[in-house]
Design goal:
The protein is an alpha+beta fold and 217 residues long. The chain contains seven helices and ten strands. The protein is globular and about 45 Å long.
């Protein structure tokens, strides 16, 4: 093979690699939602085929780089939220919104389940008119099916701050933590918290067989 041929082959491989990279990037999208305890939302959506990862964090407030302690006081305006990265060729934004609305109590404006107050409100965060229209249409359909008023707002996306490392993948962690149930492995403590908080019981009460994830717990 001549030098010229080698150069042409190298250029072709490079162009193909760039093309594949652009394609992969185009297929990955993000959806940010707030559904009460971010441990639970993260756990639910990381089980969905097509979801690449779900990251716990904070958004919608007015303080830069907020901490969990600041959020808990309720004076930063932030929601506990989850940023869901997904492959749009395997699962659509519309499908994820459908699942989200059926995994929360979208009729409750004061928090979620046992978690009360501003950080635990529900919301869908959007960028641009197309995402806003899709979110509103999905909420309207859910409201029709539920035959109750849905209070989950559609809000303009703000900076998403990743929560502290110990919050990530909390539901499957193996660290020993001290809880009101005594010392437990994180995964065990998470399951006990989720059950005690009444999340799945309430979602099943609202949605029945349409509940997205509650039947798995």
């Amino acid at each position: 093979m001549t030098v010229s041929s080698n150069i042409k082959t190298a250029l072709l491989v490079g162009v193909m690699a760039i093309g594949l990279g652009v394609q992969a990037q185009a297929e990955t999208e993000k959806l940010v939602v707030a559904g009460g305890c971010f441990w639970c939302v993260e756990s639910d959506f990381e089980s969905v085929p097509g979801v690449i990862e779900a990251v716990s964090g904070y958004t919608g407030g007015h303080t830069d780089d907020p901490t969990y302690k600041q959020i808990g006081r309720g004076d930063t305006g932030h929601f506990e939220a989850v940023e869901i990265s997904f492959d749009n060729e395997r699962v659509s934004r519309e499908r994820l919104l459908h699942l989200f609305l059926r995994s929360i109590d979208a009729t409750d404006a004061g928090g979620q389940f046992c978690d009360r107050g501003a950080p635990y409100r529900t919301a869908v965060f959007v960028t641009g008119d197309a995402e806003k229209a899709l979110a509103n249409a999905t909420i309207a359909q859910a409201e029709k099916e539920l035959a109750r008023t849905i209070v989950t707002p559609v809000l303009e996306a703000k900076t998403f701050y990743q929560a502290e490392e110990y919050h990530q993948d909390y539901y499957k962690g193996d660290n020993l933590v001290f809880t009101r149930f005594g010392p437990k492995r994180q995964s065990s403590a998470y399951e006990k918290y989720r059950k005690a908080c009444g999340r799945d019981k309430r979602v099943l009460q609202l949605w029945g067989d349409a509940a997205s994830f509650a039947k798995n717990h």
